[in-house]
Amino acid sequence: MKLVEYADRDMMMLDLADKIASELSSMLDHEDRASIAVPGGTTPGPVFDALSAVDLDWARVDVMLTDERWVPEDNPRSNTALLKNRLLVDKASAASLVPLYGGTDRPEESLDALSAGVMQATPLSVVLLGMGEDMHTASLFPGADLLTEGLSHSAPAILPMRAPGAPEPRITLTAPVLNGAMSKHLLIMGQAKRAALASALEAEDAFDAPVKAVLGDMTVHWAE
Fold this sequence. Notes:
Layout: E1 2-5, H1 9-30, E2 34-38, H2 45-52, E3 61-65, E4 67-69, H3 79-86, E5 96-98, H4 111-120, E6 126-129, H5 147-151, E7 158-161, E8 170-173, H6 175-179, E9 183-189, H7 190-202, E10 218-223
Parallel strand pairs: 1-10, 2-3, 2-6, 3-5, 6-9, 9-10
Antiparallel strand pairs: 4-8, 7-8
């Protein structure tokens, strides 16, 4: 794991966007397509804003979320809606969205169709992850119902996930898909997240600190 510390958050967001754009461009230089998975929430928004303006052959890029809440796009908790509003705009509007929400009552009912889309876009060229203070990443939460399966080396590409404190079911990329990315970035801010990262590194296993399962070959970007 490599830790990069920044003097301020704005500098971090711009530098990270530039790094990701360079990695996608490099992939497109020798492959027909590139793919990137990104987190939801408001934290990576400035990265999305910068990336969307980059002059890249976005028509050859597949974009997906690392995880999604099982809610429709008109729900304010929809990460897909945020992605469409912050990343898949401007020049990046030409990119292809790989969905993680299928519109059925339960995620299990859409699992096969969503998995097929994810599998077509993997291995990922780049993955950008976030981390909670509870040391979860994507929707790999401590105490989640299928966490053991999600962390397994033989896990399927995606899994439904239900966890204490999560108000709705989730769909998440699993550890093998996240670790299979050619480039991995973790974006965290503040002392609480820095302390959580230190705790994850010291944890005996990933079941109490799921982010530990993906920290190998990871570049962690941190600012106060």
